Amino acid sequence: MDQSRQAVHQAVKPTFSELFTPKLVTVWREGYRLPHFKADVIAGLTVAIVALPLSMAIAIASGVTPERGLYTSIVGGFIISALGGSRFQIGGPAGAFIVLVAATVARVGLDGLLLATMMAGVFLIAIGYLRLGTYIKFIPYPVTVGFTAGIAVIIFSGQIVELFGLTLPGREPGPFVPKLIALGEAAGTINLAATVVAALTIATIAVLKRWRPKWPAMLIAIGLASVVVALLALPAETIGTRYGGIPRSLQWPGMPPVSFGRMLDVLPDAIAFALLGAIESLLSAVVADGMTGRRHRSNCELVAQGFANVASALFGGICATGTIARTATNVRAGAHGPVSGMVHSGILLVLMLVAAPLASYIPLAALAGVLAVVCWNMVEKQAFATLLRASRGDALVLMATFLIVVFRDLTEGIVVGFALGSILFIDRMAKSVAVEADLAQDDVADSVGGARTYDSAEASDADTVVYRISGAFFFGAASAVGSVLDRIADQRRNFVLDCSAVPLFDSTAANVIESAAHKAGRAGVRFIISGASPQIRRMLINHGVKPPLVTYAASIRDARGQLAGRQEAEQPSLND
User: Fold this and answer.
1) Residue span of the structural domain in which 362 resides
2) How many separate domains does the chain show?
3) pTM of the model
4) To which H or E segment does residue 496 belong?
């Protein structure tokens, strides 16, 4: 039986080429025609219009110059679409990285950021080829909701200076509470012009989203704000006044300074980039799957993300990952496949080459307004409220992740949230394991997690007690199950433990059974295990639970037959 199951498993197990073939190749093999190309061009143009202001806004919020956001969307976005495992993924700089990137730039400078981004790319390539992408999906939902909401709060707090044109006496503090204190102290320096520009941007986006949802609201809002500032000569800072504009070409590729000591210095940043990039990109791919009914290749997607980050850093870009909002826009725009993402990158390159001088007129307050809208959209408000009402456990995981991200650190928030979510899962799984006993009529049934009635004619007599375990028997349930089994020696001459409803046994469970079997042996109780699958039987035998300590039966009826002497107590082999 084991061999036949293994043969079936091997037959359906995907090959290396199936796991890592880019979706671009898949789409091409399916037959890529002119109508498909037209659909991808339209979708790519739509996404490029959305990505243009976002890429610059995210770069500025991350503590680097605006063109580096464009480099990321052009180079990283192209590679993610060309090599990725999702048909619709759009890559580029993401709001989730703003806090991490800004902290890295402040600590190790731009060269350190580029090195950390390259190292993160190498880590992502390794994660993908080691096929670890499946495990990244195990992040609990309350953790992702709390993490995203926490990032949105931090990003918004970082935009308050630009939204109101505040003047801080020194560098803006990184931690949340000191930042709020510094902003409060600078409240008297509000620039009315910047405030009006930010409000105009946010209002324009809100109105267009409601009345003309298909129009590029963010780009229109940025253009309107730029025209107002230029025509009225408002004293609001622009990209030109702060950064001198953006270049009209891509930066030539080059390696940042590399040394062993420098690599050790940025290693924590690289690990954080890789983990966040993996989570963000796979989450975005899952969203695209839900909208289209397609299935992405998670490990292939991570490999593409890795190469994209290495290339982005070589061209002076920042961290690249899959972006949920732009990917959703791509799907809604009617994209057919990855070509739309490649077109989006190409259009951004053309816009940078042709219209770069116009970027100098973009007010920083308008870009801050765009990010304020992004932060509002990042918070899954309905999901947040639902999780708070769902259960105390989910609410605890959600709030712990959210508060730690806001007041402590992003990585700590994920780690603590994941740990709490795992403990909550173990507790729920342990409570789902039931141990039911069918005793004589004058006895009271012991139960853990539930109750079940057996046919007394088949399962019980004056000398025999039958227990059934149902559910995954693992370390979390070991104490509860063990407390029931410990009483068997005082009850009957024969004990049958039915495991037919147990899908999973671990070493702790096997140790509990071994202890119960030894106790039964010392009390002269005959111990029979019925219904155990070959895998569970092998686990038990490896832990010493074997004849003559116990005997095995295929079912409760067979166990009763052994006890009655109606059939030989023949032991099934491990290959049954």
Assistant:
1) 2-422
2) 2
3) 0.77
4) strand 494-501
